[in-house]
Specification:
Blueprint: H1 9-17, E1 21-23, E2 33-35, E3 39-42, H2 52-60, E4 64-67, H3 71-79, H4 88-99, E5 103-110, E6 114-124, E7 127-135, H5 140-155, E8 159-163, H6 167-170, E9 175-178, H7 179-189, H8 205-215
Parallel strand pairs: 7-8
Antiparallel strand pairs: 1-2, 3-8, 3-9, 4-5, 5-6, 6-7
């Protein structure tokens, strides 16, 4: 994609619906390219794995969980690393989608230090396309994912796309499926509707742990 200015939020949404997502080679690269991996990472929403150590940390309720209160902060937190595919054009596109109510984030806040972790993505139909996450404290991104999966289940989502499978995601229950299977699951999920903003925040980490234990 030689001229990234041609990529509009509407075109980006059509790409997601077709199983594609954009990336840049690095932060300063003005060009974008489309990705449709041969093997796709997804989270089966009924098999998120919360380890004993993560469950203990969540039960302490040391952090405050928020939804969509600092999308820009989460986006910039995800880009704040030595190598990132989030360039200025991508940043602008997802901020546009957030303003339109189609991109969302789940945040982990420390009472003293503010935003310490989070994850963001795009919602279409009953599909959630996870884009990136970050962590400034031990397990902050894992906590964000645990609360995110809980929210997706409560809201009626049917597909949680992670794009690629990493060791970190695999340890939490993510798996790889073929491109063909992904496209089948995506087409099915797009036939349904889910509302990311509808569920109330859990009263405690224990509530999330308990629901996950019941469904895993």
């Amino acid at each position: 994609m030689k001229d990234s200015a041609d990529l509009t939020p509407d075109l980006l949404l059509r790409a997601y619906a077709a199983g594609l997502f954009p990336m840049a080679e690095h932060r300063d690269d003005p060009d974008l390219f489309w990705v449709d991996p041969r093997r796709r990472g997804i989270f089966p929403l009924d098999h998120f794995h919360i380890s004993r150590s993560l469950a203990r940390r969540m039960r302490r309720d040391e952090y405050e969980i928020r939804v969509n209160s600092d999308f820009e902060g989460v986006l910039d937190g995800c880009a704040d690393r030595e190598e990132t595919w989030i360039n200025d054009r991508i940043r602008g596109l997802y901020l546009d989608l957030f303003r339109r109510g189609l991109a969302h984030c789940l945040e982990v806040h420390d009472p003293k230090h503010g935003l310490i972790g989070g994850v963001y993505g795009v919602a279409l139909g009953a599909a959630f396309f996870g884009e990136s996450m970050f962590s400034r404290r031990t397990d902050a991104s894992k906590i964000a994912l645990a609360y995110l999966v809980d929210r997706l289940n409560l809201a009626g989502f049917r597909l949680f796309d992670t794009q690629f499978l990493t060791d970190h995601l695999a340890s939490l229950g993510a798996v790889e499926i073929s491109r063909a299977e992904y496209h089948e699951r995506l087409a099915e999920a797009l036939e349904y509707r889910a509302d990311f903003t509808a569920p109330a925040l859990p009263l405690s980490g224990q509530e999330v742990v308990q629901r996950n234990t019941q469904t895993s």
